[in-house]
């Protein structure tokens, strides 16, 4: 595992974009994308580099997760968020941006279909990840099996409180999600975790230096052969 500590969130974005650009230039064609605040600086940097010539025309992108039950086209659905923050601003084919269908009549079937799709393509080359304050990756909340696959999960109150900033009120934050499982995420060739801010420091330290345990789902990264972690100084402050 390679851990890079840089000064601030913009530095995290530049360093993570370096990793992704290098992967793209060496043939990465299946890119795993996260949503939420953590990757925003990375996406802003990728958009800037796209304007200078970095192309995503040959790339398929795969989302980590999606809320269940938001109306189609809801601005906070992750399908919409990724368009707004990244894919509408680069030359990726919109038909090649994939994610679980949170509007499906049967979310369990939608989860199984997404897992099948990921299996059929052989997993992604590089998976970008953020980390929740409770140590989740994707929406694999504490207690998630390290062997889990894409499925429907119930969000913890902590995660719903953390994400309430994107919604009008806590009551509007969905309770259920479809998320890639920890084993699904681990099937990526390369995992790239980004974190910024002091509020992530405890989760980062538990994930990288604590025991490998379902109580801290991100600790599964310790089992993967190719992991890059990019942190700002605040997020790294509890590392020994
Ligand atoms: C989002 C995702 C989540 C977030 C995590 C951190 O697709 O999979 O694991 O990365 O909840 O969220 P932010 O980045 O908003 O602090």
Automatic annotation (TrEMBL):
One of its GO terms (biological process) is N-acetylglucosamine catabolic process. Gene3D superfamilies: 3.40.50.1360. GO terms for molecular function: glucosamine-6-phosphate deaminase activity; identical protein binding. Keywords: Carbohydrate metabolism, Hydrolase. It comes from the Bacteria. PANTHER family: GLUCOSAMINE-6-PHOSPHATE ISOMERASE. This is Glucosamine-6-phosphate deaminase. It comes from Motilibacter rhizosphaerae.
């Amino acid at each position: 595992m390679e851990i890079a500590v840089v000064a601030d969130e913009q530095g995290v974005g530049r360093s993570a974009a370096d990793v992704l650009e290098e992967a793209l230039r060496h043939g990465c064609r299946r890119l795993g994308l996260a949503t939420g605040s953590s990757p925003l600086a990375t996406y802003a940097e990728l958009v800037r580099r796209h304007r200078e010539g970095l192309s995503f025309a040959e790339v398929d992108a795969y989302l980590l997760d999606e809320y269940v039950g938001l109306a189609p086209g809801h601005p906070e659905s992750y399908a919409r968020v990724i368009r707004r923050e990244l894919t509408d601003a680069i030359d990726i084919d919109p038909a090649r941006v994939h994610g679980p269908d949170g509007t499906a009549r049967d979310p369990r079937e939608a989860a199984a279909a997404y897992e099948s799709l990921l299996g059929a393509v052989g997993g992604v080359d590089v998976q970008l990840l953020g980390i929740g304050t409770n140590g989740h990756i994707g929406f694999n909340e504490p207690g998630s099996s390290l062997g889990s696959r894409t499925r429907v999960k119930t969000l913890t109150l902590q995660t719903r409180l953390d994400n309430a900033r994107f919604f009008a009120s806590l009551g509007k934050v969905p309770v259920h999600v479809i998320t890639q499982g920890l084993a699904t995420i681990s099937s990526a060739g390369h995992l790239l975790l980004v974190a910024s801010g002091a509020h992530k420091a405890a989760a980062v330290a538990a994930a990288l230096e604590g025991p490998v345990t379902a109580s801290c789902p991100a600790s599964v990264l310790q089992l993967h052969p190719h992991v890059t972690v990019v942190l700002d100084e605040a997020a790294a402050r509890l590392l020994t």
